[in-house]
Here is the input.
Amino acid sequence: MTASLIRAFDGTFGILGEIGGCVRFVLKNIDVFFRKGVSRHEVFLQIWKVTLQSLPTTMMAGFFVGAIMTVQFAMQVEAYGAMGFLGGLSTSATIRQVGPLLIAFMLSGKVGAFTTAELGTMRVTEQIDAIRCLGADPYQELILPRMIAIVASSFALLTAGLLMSIFGGVLLAMGFAGINADEYLRHIPTIVKFPSVATGIFKCFIYALLLSAICTYKGFTADGGAKGVGRAVVQTAVATMVTLVVADWATSLVSESLLTMLLSIVSEMSQITESVKAGAVKGP
Here is the structure.
């Protein structure tokens, strides 16, 4: 019993230590960015690499996600005679919830593990130490370009995945529900408003930021030779999956609260404007 409690406390403190180390790592990168900047050429090179690595998988996954969402919503809305809204409902759900999380999982499996292995190999083979000996800053040369590239590429991948999800949804709507493409696409602008788009962009940014921080931190702090690099890759995979699920809950809660607050403010402002106009019409 005592040994189990000791292991539990050790595991808890170990997790807290990793979180604290990752936070300090991110703050260090922010400090280096504002003091020294970053090479634009290296950033664009990393964006190109990250996008090429994940684009085919993301597009294929987006196609099937759109198809699945269409089938699921078709079975629900058919009972209410609202099949015309199928395209708007499935697209709204994809852009608000499934799309950003899907892109994050794709980046985690492809780019996250690769980045950790790449930086971990540089660490255990003392390439990072060699960069320091040459007078360069490894944060500026290695870490910042990869972090910025993952965040920037996530928006391009989100757009590609959403377009493919609409395409997959159209095909399944035509074959499964008997709805033509015009009817499927016509109600997308009706339901997919700015709050849905803003929620998707907000979630995509948070997921990419967390993923880039975890994978670069685990790779930069890897030790123990080839075995240590493999251990860091496994830890990255587990940490990113758990973090993304928790972040999904947190961002959903925060985004809904912010949207509710903004809508209430807009409603109050519109009421005040209408009352002022009514008073101006009546005159003194």
Observations:
- The mean pLDDT is 81.
